[in-house]
Design brief:
The structure is a homodimer.
Chain A (H helix, E strand, L loop, with lengths): L3 E7 L2 E3 L2 H8 L7 E4 L6 E10 L4 E9 L6 E3 L2 H7 L5 E2 L8 E6 L4 E11 L2 E4 L1 H7 L6 E6 L6 E10 L6 E5 H7 L6 E5 L2
Parallel strand pairs in A: 1-13, 2-5, 6-9, 7-9, 10-12
Antiparallel strand pairs in A: 1-14, 2-6, 3-4, 4-5, 4-8, 8-9, 10-13, 11-12, 11-14
């Protein structure tokens, strides 16, 4: 089996709790499935919100479903800087002391005191693919991206292993632009 | 001597011809020196312009001096995409078939049919420092950036050698964010 995996670019997006969803979109609101994502059970939604920082607001940001136990806003560092939010580089769910913002929906708005992060680059692997690649959950690895004009080997990539995952590396739009990522790009774990 | 060099982030900026400067800022206009840049003779100016693409405009973009033989707009890929311009990754001055835009100044505006690029990452070296590092003009090298949380080895880095240069690597804001560059960051040419 190949030791390569697809590399996907995560655009800015929001995960919401059911409670926040209902404040933003009205009592009894449910997320509307628009498109499946590579990770089983995860999907892009029709619902969109505006993220407001101290300097500027960013309209039309997608929500990804399903609802989660905590509301989380994932921006690129470019995004965060442009709207004036100090967002740390974090793994999903590691929100203590992360950035604050206001989120506006068509039915209401919320203020979150933390939850805004720049996602740490990571690879989703199944136990089987992780074993084949000789890595385990929480390993930090280097990944070679062989693009045309902006090749790179990215370090500080977190390996996340679960039987619920599909093999895929996720980078944000800054990283995607910095390596000139394209549809179908594959990454490979390398030793430096 | 060290084989390392400083790594600087180039924010979006514009270089203008004297003719375009006078259209944008008025007959007889001259660039106003604001701050020296690392490359000898190059400086940031007080003058600012708005870059207009098919989708959106980007106000408040710096001009870098002195004036040049061709007008050139350097954006990050994030910038270019956000205002709707298809800008190729190019070395400075390699403008044939590059992106088009409108540029608006306080006294007038111009349309350029080419000149918008995403700068190819590069290292300025003097003949002496290039010799010490074992590289020559136009070499394509890998550069290791040892940052905290987003380490990377960037490939497709062009070496440019001139006695007029000061040793420094230039990356754009996407690349800077992708590696979490900081003030004082040093790069080192490595073999992969």
């Amino acid at each position: 089996m190949s030791k390569k995996f697809i590399v996907e670019t995560s655009a800015r997006h929001v995960h919401v709790t059911q409670e926040h969803l209902e404040i933003l979109f009205g009592k009894g609101a449910a997320l509307t499935h628009k498109k499946d994502l590579s990770q089983p059970g995860q999907f892009a939604c029709e619902e969109r919100v505006t993220i407001v920082g101290p300097k500027k607001e960013m309209p039309n940001v997608s929500i990804l479903g399903p609802v989660r136990p905590e509301t989380q806003v994932e921006l690129s560092a470019t995004d965060a800087r442009s709207i004036g939010i100090a967002a740390p580089i974090r793994e999903s769910g590691d929100l203590n002391g992360s950035g604050a913002c206001k989120i506006i929906g068509p039915a209401g708005e919320i203020e979150i005191s933390q939850g805004v992060i720049v996602a740490k680059r990571h690879i989703h692997l199944t136990p089987e693919t992780a074993a084949e690649m000789g890595v385990k959950d929480k390993d930090i690895v280097w990944v070679k991206l062989d693009t045309n004009g902006r090749k790179a080997v990215l370090g500080d990539v977190v390996v996340r292993v679960s039987p619920k995952y599909a093999p895929a590396m996720h980078i944000d739009t800054d990283e995607s632009n910095a390596v000139s990522a394209f549809n179908g790009l594959e990454g490979e774990i390398v030793k430096l």
